[in-house]
Specification:
By secondary structure, the chain is of the alpha/beta class. It has nine helices and 14 strands. α1 crosses α7. The relative contact order is 0.15.
């Protein structure tokens, strides 16, 4: 009872990785609506967990522009309910946020930088952070970026698929990121639980453009500018998260190689 852990969003890409790190956790996915204040508060207060890990979220960046009400409900308002419930039962709240809460006016961002989102996804995630900080003291907000891993749609799998369908795959070379392997992030979460309350920037080491990332996957990628492929949501040109509070994760290329080996994916001519 004293060590009861609840994972929300347990069946998404990050949620599956967290299951491996917390095998005895209670798992909740779509069977618990985090936007239903009465349902989420009642469940947490009845369960009385010691740790709540919230890996749930609406992460379709362009979709958030079209479904703004849903984006703010899932990514923002639900954290009001979750954080209040955690505070009532004295549970630690672990929550994942994003590099997209920043506008890209700096090349790298530290934990104390002030959010200034430029799209609905970033604005909704920023609201979630504010609701946590307002309602509970014992929290860990983990900002991350460029997630890839099993059990979910991600950039790596998309690029690998496109490579087999197109003679050339155009990928933007004027937006930077720090790719992050869900397995590494999940392992780091276990460590962060024991650290002080606050905000943490956790990504795999190494900054790259999305084109650089793709070039380590396939031989037939070509660079392009973001302006050539306008999308509904504006993206920051720079959004690298700098970790100033804890040890660094391994380089993203090492994590990527492990992910590909685990998938048994072998691309002839893939750069090393």
């Amino acid at each position: 009872m004293k060590n009861r852990i609840l994972i929300l969003g347990a069946y998404g890409m990050l949620g599956h990785a967290l299951q491996n790190i917390f095998p005895e956790a209670i798992l909740k996915g779509h069977d618990l609506d985090i936007t239903d204040e009465r349902a989420i508060k009642g469940f947490i207060e009845d369960l009385h967990p010691s740790i709540v890990i919230n890996a749930a979220g609406y992460t379709n960046v362009d979709g958030c522009e079209e479904n703004q009400k849903l984006a703010f409900a899932v990514n923002g308002e639900s954290l009001q309910y979750i954080s209040c419930a955690c505070n009532e039962v004295n549970a630690i709240l672990i929550h994942y946020s994003t590099d997209y809460i920043f506008d890209g006016s700096k090349k790298e961002y530290v934990e104390t930088d002030i959010p200034h989102p430029i799209n609905i996804y970033g604005k909704s995630k920023s609201l979630g952070e504010k609701n946590i900080i307002k309602n509970i003291e014992n929290y860990r907000i983990i900002r991350t970026s460029g997630l890839f891993g099993e059990h979910g749609k991600n950039f790596v799998d998309t690029i690998l698929t496109l490579s087999t369908q197109l003679p050339e795959v155009k990928v933007v070379n004027d937006q930077t990121t720090k790719p992050t392997y869900t397995i590494d992030l999940a392992k780091k979460t276990l460590e962060i639980i024991s650290l002080n309350s606050g905000i943490y920037h956790i990504t795999n080491d190494g900054i790259c453009t999305w084109y650089d990332f793709a070039s380590n996957l396939i031989p037939n990628t070509v660079p392009c500018l973001a302006a050539e492929f306008p999308r509904r949501a504006k993206r920051p040109h720079y959004s690298a998260l700098t970790n100033t509070k804890t040890t660094q994760l391994r380089h993203w290329k090492l994590a990527l190689n492990e992910y590909l080996m685990n998938k048994k994916t072998y691309i002839t001519g893939r750069p090393r």
